[in-house]
Specification:
The complex is a heterodimer. Chain A is mainly β. Helices cover about 0% and strands about 55% of the residues of chain A. In chain A, β4 and β5 form a beta hairpin. The radius of gyration of chain A is 14 Å and the shape is globular. By secondary structure, chain B is an all-beta fold. Helices cover about 0% and strands about 60% of the residues of chain B. The chains are: A mainly beta, B mainly beta. At the A-B interface, β4, β5 and β10 of A face β5, β9 and β10 of B.
Chain lengths: ~110, ~120
């Protein structure tokens, strides 16, 4: 089955700096890669996703890049703000199935210092 | 839509007691997922249903865990008997992959403490 590795496990940055979180996956059939943000006391929430026919996607301060050959994808947050502090999860899925199962990485605790 | 609804939000019980967690998925979603989250093991997929049918329960840790989905709007996760190591936050999520919506919408979670 799919295995997703996520690094780093913790990341501390100053407000205004950029943050990068990286993930690798094992199943070359995976074609859907979402990123979730989990705030304290809440469930994970989708912030951005990318499909395998796209190399990069951007939404305001958040961008995701995908390298299918190397089987890795990354989340980039620019101009970080204290409210970006949360746990971030990457995930992978063989979106061609009808079930929508996701395999999650281990999570990255991001702390943005004012 | 109110989103995925889970109850109770918090549950404290004693070892050996039966625990039942409840989930109402988003209306129209036909896939439902139960996850367990702990500091040590992260976010673990326990079981998932599609069109009310269990598809993969390989993540269910032991026979003490069972899940049902009697209809499209309700699912339960039961632990009997509960043990202290079952203490965790349990999330329910739903999606509609058959309609091309692969995003999983998570509920607020149930924080379970087994004493």
């Amino acid at each position: 089955g799919e295995n997703v590795e996520q690094h780093p496990s913790t990341l501390s940055v100053q407000e205004g700096d950029s943050a990068v979180i990286k993930c690798t996956y094992s199943d070359s059939a995976s074609n859907y890669f979402p990123w979730y943000k989990q705030e304290l006391g809440k469930g994970p929430q989708l912030i951005i996703d990318i499909r395998s026919n796209v190399g990069e996607k951007k939404d305001q301060r958040i961008a995701v890049t995908l390298n299918k050959t190397a089987k890795h994808f990354s989340l980039h947050i620019t101009e970080t703000q204290p409210e970006d502090s949360a746990v971030y999860f990457c995930a992978a899925s063989t979106g061609g199935t009808s079930y929508g199962k996701l395999t999650f990485g281990q999570g990255t605790i991001l702390t943005v210092h004012p | 839509d109110a989103g995925v609804i889970q109850s109770p939000r918090h549950e404290v019980t004693e070892m050996g007691q039966e625990v039942t967690l409840r989930c109402k998925p988003i209306s129209g979603h036909n896939s439902l997922f139960w996850y367990r989250q702990t500091m040590m093991r992260g976010l673990e997929l326990l079981i998932y249903f599609n069109n009310n049918v269990p598809i993969d329960d390989s993540g269910m840790p032991e026979d003490r865990f069972s899940a049902k989905m009697p209809n499209a709007s309700f699912s339960t996760l039961k632990i009997q008997p509960s043990e202290p190591r079952d203490s965790a936050v349990y999330f329910c999520a739903s999606s509609s992959p058959g309609l091309g919506v692969h995003e999983q919408f998570f509920g607020p979670g149930t924080r379970l403490t087994v004493l």
